[in-house]
Design a protein that fits this description.
Elements: H1 3-24, H2 30-33, E1 86-88, H3 93-96, H4 102-110, E2 117-119, H5 130-142, E3 144-146, E4 151-153, H6 167-175, E5 182-189, E6 201-208, E7 224-234, E8 242-248, E9 257-262, E10 267-270
Antiparallel strand pairs: 1-2, 3-4, 5-6, 6-7, 7-8, 8-9, 9-10
């Protein structure tokens, strides 16, 4: 074997070793994690406001219920007294065009005479329980990607990478973010046509987040991230369709599992291909 080839193979081996080490230890240093207490918010956002003052600094967010709120009520607007700063219309659209999304611009193009956007002061009202902040700090130095990025371990409660190093970690942050222990709600869902007609689809949904339990971790929840159950109750042609989903943390060891019950067929069908976590109603195209 020539010296040049031997050197090249040695370099490749060193490079591969470095990649493996990087993939296995994707967490950040304690020094970087300390930024979550000053430079960054406890969940990893920039704590300071922007230079022109249109985005204020984060100062802890809303941590107490608004006056008059009682458990079970609809959440009142905590900033009901805010005044409109300015209004975007088709006439002054070019002044703000670089700040708007393609969808927002399309609305102005389709409805130039009636569509408008009121702009209010920016608020940074988000907050989480203290145990979520503590979990974020732990995750920053402990959480790692596994199975070439198709799973996460050594994390608990909330986003595993509050100081993400790449896009894959950002995706897992969104998937594993803290959403409370469970959700139970009724949803009305409609897709209007350009002419204004639509069919209202009513769904009952129940969601359990075992990973978000403050006492849980990726090692104690049996590889389950989310349990999701959806039942369609209207219209009559869709009523009775049921969707059950088990979403997993290590998707190589056990991919997402989904089942659909169709009352017309009176059968439960395995639907592992189904894209969730915000499933469309069964039988709804688009």
């Amino acid at each position: 074997m020539s010296e040049t080839r031997r050197t090249s193979m040695s370099f490749c081996a060193m490079l591969m070793t470095g990649l493996i080490v990087t993939a296995a230890f994707a967490n950040v240093s304690p020094e970087d994690a300390a930024k979550l207490e000053n430079e960054l918010t406890p969940v990893g956002a920039i704590r300071a406001g922007n230079e022109d003052g249109t985005i204020p600094p984060w100062e802890g967010g809303i941590t107490t219920p608004p006056a008059g709120y009682e458990i079970g009520d609809h959440h009142p607007d905590p900033f009901a007294d805010d005044e409109i700063l300015f209004t975007i219309t088709a006439e002054n659209l070019d002044q703000y065009r670089d700040k708007l999304s393609p969808g927002q611009l399309a609305m102005f193009e389709r409805y130039p005479d009636s569509w408008r956007m009121h702009v209010y002061p920016t608020r940074r009202s988000a907050s989480f329980p203290d145990f979520v902040y503590e979990a974020c700090k732990d995750n920053a130095v402990n959480a790692i990607l596994i199975e070439t990025g198709n799973g996460v371990t050594n994390a608990r409660v909330t986003s595993p990478f509050p100081i993400p190093q790449d896009g894959l970690e950002c995706i897992w942050n969104h998937t594993m973010r803290y959403r409370g222990g469970s959700i139970e709600h009724v949803i009305g869902q409609a897709t209007p046509t350009p002419g204004g007609s639509y069919t209202m689809v009513t769904l009952e949904e129940r969601v359990l987040f075992p990973y978000n339990d403050p006492e849980a971790s990726t090692e104690t929840i049996g590889n389950r991230l989310i349990y999701f159950l959806q039942t369609i109750t209207a219209p009559a042609r869709l009523a009775g369709n049921i969707l059950l989903v088990h979403d997993t943390l290590n998707q190589v060891a056990e991919p997402r599992k989904a089942w659909v019950y169709n009352p017309g067929q009176r059968r439960v069908l395995h639907a592992q291909w189904m894209a969730v976590l915000r499933p469309r109603p069964v039988g709804h195209r688009g």
